[in-house]
Structure formats: C-alpha cells, structure tokens
C-alpha cells in the first residue's frame, strides 16, 4: 500500500454525476468579507476497525450565517475526511443536526429574529433594514420562512406547557383583538389573542397564548377542555358556558372598581367617588398580603378585608335603592352586586388573587406589538406567533434571557427526545455549562 490512498478511496467521496447536479447549492454564497469562525468536526477516533490509522484526505465545508447585534459573522463547519490506508474505509463526522435542515442561519441568528419580532416588536421589514445596514440584506420573505419553521418546531413545547398549566387549580384568562388579513381579499378582520396564565401565587410561572379567528366562547372551552378549576376573568359572556360546566368563576375587583372610577373621573359622580375608598382599602390589604405565606394571607384577608367587603356590599345595596335603573351609576352598582359572590371568593381561598391584572400584564406585549406590525398575515401566522411568544414571555417570567433560552432549545430540539420535551420548558430549563 502506498503513502496515499488509492483512486478507489477518492471515488467513494464522489456521488454519481446526476446526484452531484441535484445537490449543488442554489443559494448565493455568503459575502467573503464577513468574518469567519472555523468550527472543526472530526471523528471520535482515527483508528480504523482493521487496526490501521486513518489519514486525512480532505474536508467538506458548510457555512452558516450568525449575527450579533449589528455584526454578521460566518461559522465555517469543517468536516474532515479520513480514510484507512489499508482497507480504504472512509469516515467523516456527521453533519450536525439543525432546526432548519440545510439552512444557513445559526440558532443564534434565529433566536435574534424571533426575540426582535415578538419581544422587541420589530416587524420583519424593519429587521431586513437593520440587517442591510450590518452588511447583508436578508429578504423579509426569507425571515418569514425562518419564523414559520421555528414556530412549527417549537409547537410541541407550547403543547406541553399548556398541559402543565392545566394541572393548576387557579388560572387567569383574558383576550384582546388583533387584526388579521383575510385571504384573497386584501382586507383585515378582527381576530383574537387569548392569554391563559397561572396565578401570581403559583410556583409555576407560565403563560400560553392562543390565536383564534374570532372571540367565540367555544375557543375558550376548547382550550380549557377537561379542566375544572377556578378561573379569574372579566365578565365577558364567552366564559359563561364554562362556568355551567363546572369551572368556578373568580371575579375581578379591578373591573368593578373601574366602573366607578370612570364615572367619577369623566362625569364627576359623587356617588361613584364614595365607592373608591372601599377599593383603595382592599388593595392596600392585598399589598400586605402579597408578602405573606398562604396561611397568613388567609388570616389577613379574614381579619381586615372581609369587614371592608361587608361594608362595601351594604353600601352597594343601599345606593342601588336610591338610583334609577339604566343610569351610569346603576350599571356600576349592578355590575358589582350581580357578581358579588365571584368578586369575594378570593377571601376564602388563599391561592386566589383579588383581580385579573396579572393576565392583563401578560397581554400587554401583544398590545405593543400590534401597534408596530399592525396585523397578522394569516391565522397560521398568528398561531405561530402565539406559540413563540408563549415561550418568550414564559422565559421572562422565570428570569431567563429569552435570546439565550431560545438559542439553546433551538440547538437541542433536533436531537432531543420527544418523550422528554417538558425538560425544555422555561420553568425547568437549565442552560448547558461551558464544559458540557
């Protein structure tokens, strides 16, 4: 055997001519002036199974585009080709698995696009402009395709997260309108984004968004199917059927207070102004209760909040007898009186909050986002966005940097076991150490 491998060994590297023609890349090469980082992938052992040492006869190089704010770099993945001088067996490290098969973006670039769009509210056309200033214009159609693939790949995590929050006995729910493009019409119509979160008193910090084509209550029933707990929500009628099916309603004191506050602020209603100190007292008690454990919170509510609630209830009944039906103040009084049992259930359940403000805070990112991207391109695009935002916002609730979280799970997903997907959820996620 000579010092160099025979022609037969080289031929192992060459696919048939028709196959070579099909596999030739059609994308434009990445600009040569971009900085490059070489990442070498070599076999674990260069000793052939016949006992001889293999020699390196060449390499394959694939390039992936990476991005740090304002700076593009290129990762050069170099896979050495090793052949045995004796038996001419060729080995090469496998192509690393990637969330976008044969795609050019690194998971770092994908995470940047997702976080910029769904956490920093930068539409893709603005990101296209930002990337162009950094030296490489990536068409928004390409960015949109990347977002779509990531949404599909991340959906199993969101499904697992939904199952986890449905194990909780107290949930919040709220919804907000989002304009969605109607297929083939060039116009938008009103779709809805629903948010479901665990309670602020729960150890599990998570939110799941559900994007639907309408505000029909059937969407809430479908999401909560099989769940029988306590739901903190406003008085939207779409939830009423769920209450008839065994879910317990928890009223929102903030909505009740808002009825009186708006009358007082906009119409100088003195009666409405007299209601506000009751709510102020209840919220001062809740600020103290938030720092206590569950048992102490219950005792505080019983000793301090219940007398205030009793006094407010008596005042509501008295005032309702003095005002005519159909007036603004009558409507405000009726709102609280008709929902009094739901509004005061928090007094007897230490795991229940006084209002629904927690979930309204989780809807705020969507309210800010829609002011920037204006509308969802389709129902599927809205659902993909809801999935990605669920993970980003849940990561933030658990104190994680969403870019670091998404980059890591997008790297792990292609080789992660499907039956252990819950390990990648934000409240369980542990970043890999540098030496792993």
UniProtKB/TrEMBL annotation:
Q: Which residues form the Transposase IS66 central domain?
A: 102-383
What the entry lists under InterPro entries is as follows:
IS66_C (IPR039552), Transposase-related (IPR052344), Transposase_IS66_central (IPR004291), Znf_dom_IS66 (IPR024474)
Query: What are the Basic and acidic residues biased-composition ranges?
Result: 17-26
The annotated region (Disordered) lies at 1-41
**Pfam families from the xrefs?**
DDE_Tnp_IS66, DDE_Tnp_IS66_C, zf-IS66
Q: Which residues form the Transposase IS66 C-terminal domain?
A: 390-427
Name the source's superkingdom.
Bacteria
The Transposase IS66 zinc-finger binding domain extends over 46-88
Question: How is this protein named in the record?
Answer: Transposase
Organism whose genome encodes this protein: Paraburkholderia tropica
């Amino acid at each position: 055997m000579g010092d160099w491998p025979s022609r037969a060994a080289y031929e192992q590297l060459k696919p048939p001519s028709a196959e070579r023609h099909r596999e030739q890349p059609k994308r434009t090469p990445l600009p040569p002036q971009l900085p490059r980082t070489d990442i070498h992938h070599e076999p674990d052992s260069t000793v052939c199974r016949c006992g001889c040492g293999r020699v390196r006869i060449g390499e394959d190089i694939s390039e992936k585009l990476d991005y740090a704010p304002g700076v593009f770099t290129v990762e050069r993945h170099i896979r050495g080709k090793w052949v045995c001088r004796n038996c001419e067996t060729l080995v090469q490290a496998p192509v690393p698995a990637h969330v976008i098969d044969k795609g050019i973006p690194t998971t770092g670039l994908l995470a940047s696009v997702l976080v910029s769009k769904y956490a920093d509210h930068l539409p893709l056309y603005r990101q296209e402009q930002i990337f162009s200033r950094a030296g490489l214009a990536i068409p928004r159609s390409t960015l949109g395709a990347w977002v779509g693939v990531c949404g599909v790949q991340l959906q199993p995590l969101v499904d697992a997260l939904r199952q986890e929050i449905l194990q909780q006995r107290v949930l919040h729910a709220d919804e907000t309108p989002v304009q969605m493009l109607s297929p083939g019409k060039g116009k938008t119509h009103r779709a809805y984004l629903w948010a479901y979160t665990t309670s602020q008193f729960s150890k599990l910090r998570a939110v799941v968004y559900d994007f639907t084509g309408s505000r029909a209550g059937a969407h809430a029933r479908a999401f909560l199917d099989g769940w029988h707990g306590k739901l903190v929500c406003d008085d939207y009628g779409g939830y009423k059927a769920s209450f008839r099916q065994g879910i317990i309603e928890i009223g929102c004191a903030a909505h009740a207070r808002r009825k009186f506050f708006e009358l007082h602020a906009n119409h100088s209603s003195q009666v409405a102004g007299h209601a506000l100190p009751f709510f102020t007292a209840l919220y001062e008690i809740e600020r103290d209760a938030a720092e206590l454990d569950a048992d102490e919170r219950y005792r505080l509510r019983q000793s301090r909040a219940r007398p205030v609630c009793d006094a407010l209830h008596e005042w509501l009944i008295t005032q309702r007898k003095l005002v005519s039906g159909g007036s603004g103040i009558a409507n405000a009084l009726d709102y609280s009186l008709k929902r009094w049992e739901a509004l005061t259930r928090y007094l007897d359940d230490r795991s229940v909050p006084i209002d629904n403000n927690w979930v309204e805070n989780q809807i705020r990112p969507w309210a800010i986002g829609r002011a920037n991207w204006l509308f969802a391109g389709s129902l599927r695009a809205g659902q993909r966005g809801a999935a990605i935002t669920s993970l980003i916002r849940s990561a933030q609730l658990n104190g994680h940097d969403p870019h670091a979280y998404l980059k890591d799970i997008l790297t792990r997903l292609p080789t992660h076991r499907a039956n252990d997907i819950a390990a990648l959820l934000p409240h369980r996620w542990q970043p890999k150490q540098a030496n792993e």
